[in-house]
TrEMBL record, chain A:
It comes from Bradyrhizobium ottawaense. InterPro entries: ABC_transp_permease, ABC_UrtB_bac, BCAA_transport_permease. Its main location: membrane. This is Urea transport system permease protein. NCBIfam families: urea_trans_UrtB. The keyword Magnesium does not apply.
From TrEMBL, chain B:
Gene3D superfamilies: 3.40.50.2300. This is Urea transport system substrate-binding protein. Pfam families: Peripla_BP_5 (PF13433). InterPro entries: ABC_urea-bd_UrtA, Leu_Ile_Val-bd, Peripla_BP_I, TAT_signal. It comes from Bradyrhizobium ottawaense. PROSITE patterns: TAT.
Amino acid sequence: MFGDYSLGDLGSIFVMQGFAGLILFSVYVLMALGLAIIFGQMGVINMAHGEFMILGAYVTWMTSNVFQSYLPGLFSGYFFLAMILAFVASGALGMLVEWVLIRHLYKRPLDTLLATWGLSLMLQQAYRSVFGAREVGVELPQWMLGSLHVTDSIEVPINGVFVMCLTVLITLSVAYVMYMSRWGRQVRAVVQNRIMAGAVGINTEKVDRYTFGLGCGIAGIAGSAFTMIGSTGPTSGQLYIVDTFLVVVFGGAASLLGTIASAFSISQTQSTLEFFMSGSMAKVLTLLAVVGILMLRPQGLFALKVRK
Amino acid sequence: MSDEPNKGLLSPLRRKLLMGMAAVPAITMLPRASFAQAPATSAVNTTGLAVTDTEVTVGILHSATGTMAISETGSIEAEKLAIEQINAAGGVLGRKIKFIQEDGASDWPTFAEKAKKLLVNDKVAAIMGCWTSASRKAVLPVMEQYNGMLYYPTFYEGLEQSKNVIYTGQEATQQILAGLNWIAKEKGAKSFFFIGSDYIWPRTSNKIARKHVENVLKGKVVGEEYYPLGNTQFNSVINKIKLTKPDVIFTDVVGGSNVAFYKQLKAAGIDLSKQALLTISVTEDEIDGIGGENIAGAYACMKYFQSLDNPNNKAFVPAFKKAWGEKTVIGDVTQAAYLGPWLWKLTVEKAGSFDVDKIAAASPGVEFKGAPEGYVRIHENHHLWSKTRVGRAKLDGQFELIYETADLVEPDPFPKGYQ
């Protein structure tokens, strides 16, 4: 397959392929982080995760429209505000959902699967009624389009670099919140032993609500960022949900580090395989590998050791 | 006591009077001079369809909910507009068209169920509907079993022909071959890279395209890649494209993947004004989601563009926008869906009957001179003779017409040498 190409060509392709893998890795981490918190920490199987992401995307779209009509001078910076708004909107919806629906189901976690699946259908139809069935195009500021010319043959997509930086920033913030802050300690205490946590004076209901809200808010940011690389329509969230669960389950549900490791291994496997064979085949082989490893290690790559 | 019998007498009388008033349409069943242009129902409807002296019922069967609503919304709008216009122009055989809309909900068994409901319970005279091949395949046996008439709007892979279906979109050879010929001649293209979503339409289309490139154009296919429906990451395949440096990227990626593909292509620094790209799956509808700036310069090959400059289209586009909003765009399939009710009306008038068998027999040769795409005619194989056009995408999301075939292209759903 490589006979016809010069060494220089191959070298730059390998560099770009490396970047392609890293970008896929960042995308996976970004979409899985929110779910890792909700599913990993709280045990809620949130099938509506994709819809929370798309809410973020729609918020971004609306923000871009507002800026275009009223503040065209500041358009080049709207994306940062849009991400904050996306976090707030998705987070607020998440807390509402937790209060109305999820908190009644903590004792039967499997039922959250059905409840949130129904929720995802409702949200999809709501988006369809409010924003229309057609996809919307989110216009990006000029500086986010195109690629960086590193050399003549090596080009790195700017939006990919943006997603990478964003992922690092959000991962570090989540790690800080979960492992360094007082609130993070409360969350982990509730996860490990809800009754004891309550007994020592932690308001477990409040912790649950904010944790769920945080997970959904991060999903909103992810959705906002993905307007750069994907589509924004009522059902676009469905495109992400399988990969998201794959990353979280493979990583070991309760571990943030596991999520990152799993995103890394899946994305590298997939992007390398995609280069050497057709996209569909690459997906099949990746999934087979994941299934194989999960059969040997049902708890996922990293598992929290807890006394049950 | 004395009032009771009176009431009993009066009330049937009253009821009769009321019934008489409600049954005014029924009276017109009698042959009358004033209704000369509307032939008697008994004469035009011998199979018990939902045809009265003033109305005829048709069905609209598309996904208004679920994944496919993105695409099928335009078709629903076009069909409703056509029906409204036909009614304003006097209807079909003097009868107004009434429609019953059912939702296929992007679920193929639901399509079959709803088609059966429309045919068996509602006795509709025709169904305008389906979008994906999967939904059509699900509906086809129902149409054949209960002898219905389906007007199917989407461009599709061919390899099908039924007495009970009129295909108002193009089949694959009609759509693809002229476009490939054009780009080979215009750009001197010799090497092609195919990329598509992984299901029947792209695979069949690419098979036809590959045979054409290799056998007729004497070119080379340097890559053929398929990605699962809904895939959102194309960086690896874009690197492969960069490595193989094809003259033409030929794509039939659909749905949300489409958006991701073009955004990432642009982000990877592939400039579509320099790198020729020919797509058969992007209409104005899709560009709405992709964003004009991400796809400007790409070539699309189909039979209709909103920007077509002809008198029919100049009347159609404003009428559509007036009905459905100034921002609505009209893609190839939307236009093809608009043809359905009109072709049905013309066929009914040619046959002088609503009977499905007579319509099926009368269809070949029916011509529609008012089609926004220009002129179309139904072929013996129930597909349409139509021109194929190549357009170049512009920043504003519209296509600029670059090329059109001189003559109508013959539909050939079972192409010899391409299977």
